[in-house]
Every structure is written in structure tokens, then in C-alpha cells.
Design goal:
- There is one protein chain.
- The chain has 70 residues and is mainly alpha-helical.
- It has one domain: Orthogonal Bundle (Helix Hairpins).
- It contains two helices and no strands.
- Helix 1 packs antiparallel against helix 2.
- InterPro entries: TFIIA_asu/bsu (IPR004855).
- One of its GO terms (cellular component) is transcription factor TFIIA complex.
Length: 70
Amino acid sequence: ITMLSNSNTVSKLYMSVIDDVIESVRELFQDEGIEDRVLEDLRQINSYFCQKVVLTWIVTSPSVSLERSF
């Protein structure tokens, strides 16, 4: 459970950094005539990527037990 919590914290931190970068370049993109939709697409791609990385890390981590009790 601790590893899941840690991965969630890392994921949130990573998303926060990406969101900050996207917001800091928004005006530059607008000045160049690039639509806001491009930045929102980047945000969605990042979210998808981050979820996949966390899931891969959880599944491949040897210290996470995924056993079920019957």
C-alpha cells in the first residue's frame, strides 16, 4: 500500500509540473497563433502517459503483492 501511495504522490507531482509548464507557455502559444486546444491535448496525453507509467511500475515492482485471498 505504501508503494501505491508513493506512486500516486509522484504521479501528482509530475502532473503538477507539467500543468505549470503548460500554463507558463500558454501566452507564448497564443502569441504564435497556436490554439489552446493543442495545450489541452498535450495535458491529456501526459495524463494518459503518467497513468501507464504508474501502472507499469506497480505491476513490475517485486515488492507489491497482488495476491487475492479466497
